Amino acid sequence: PACLLLYPAVNPAVAPPPSLSVLQAKEKFFLGDAVTLVCTTPPSVTGKRSYQLFGEAGWALSEISERNNYTHKFTLTKMQDRGPHFCSYSFEKAQRLFSSPRSEALIIEIEDPLPQPLLMVESPLGEVMRGDLLRIICKAPGNATERRFHFYRDGREFPHRKAGSENNASEREDILNNGMVLHFLHASPQHSGNFTCKYEEKMHGRWIPSLTSQAVNVNINSNKRGNSWFLLLRFLVVGGCFFTINGLILLFF
Where would you find the membrane-spanning parts of this chain (predicted)? Predict the structure, then answer.
């Protein structure tokens, strides 16, 4: 009997194959979509049974229930989640353990994700000093009728502040419908961090996210005397020397 429990007999007459379905029937799935799989046993099967659900990507899970169906909800996070999925069940009858054949394959097709955008940092003086102008640009390839962009700092979405709400306020503005700018009039150390961005396109009546851009580390130099002050000081020194020399020449003549 122990051997029978370890190796259940596959008998379709006693344990007919279950059916596997998906609640959210869509023509196309995209990364980020939620999928609910339902494994249903035939009405002739009663009592406690153990459900097994598995995919071709190598994942599997099991659940014990007395219901005639088992529901599993998950999110499509990687392309390996696509492909055929199966389920089966096992139960004990007359002190023997029987296992059903696996269900027919349920194919989940995942569309290729939208390409990642390009994230750029622009500062007129190269190194970003406190108080300097800072522009973080997220540009998407190609053109689309409807897009929306998201910026992230250290993995969390960066909040949008209305321009003029504070001294270090930021504002967003569209660029030719294929990009967006995070514009800091006065950069401060609180704007430092690891920045990424992504965009969404409206397709098939819903917003489809892109891959995340490459990360760019933004470091705001907290030195009060920024590059802009250094350039102004250099201009005054060089200009002052120029006028001093000309004045001496004029005095000599």
Answer: 229-252
Q: Structural domain tally of the chain?
A: 2
Backbone dihedral angles phi then psi of residue 188, each to the nearest 5 degrees: -140, 165
Residue 190 sits in which domain range? 118-221
Same domain, 142 and 100: no
The answer as to whether 252 is a domain residue is: no
pTM: 0.59
DSSP string, the chain: -HHHHHS-EE-TTTS---EEEESS--S-B-TT-EEEEEEE--TT--S-EEEEEEETTS-EEEEEESSSEEEEEEE--SGGG-EEEEEEEEEEETTEEEEPPPPPPEEE-BPPPBPP-EEEEE-TTSSPBTTS-EEEEEE-SS--SSEEEEEEETTEEPPP--TTSSTT-EEEEESTTSEEEEEESS--GGG-EEEEEEEEEEETTEEEEBPPPPPEEE--B--SS-HHHHHHHHHHHHHHHHHHHHHHHHHH-
Whether 124 and 98 share a structural domain: no
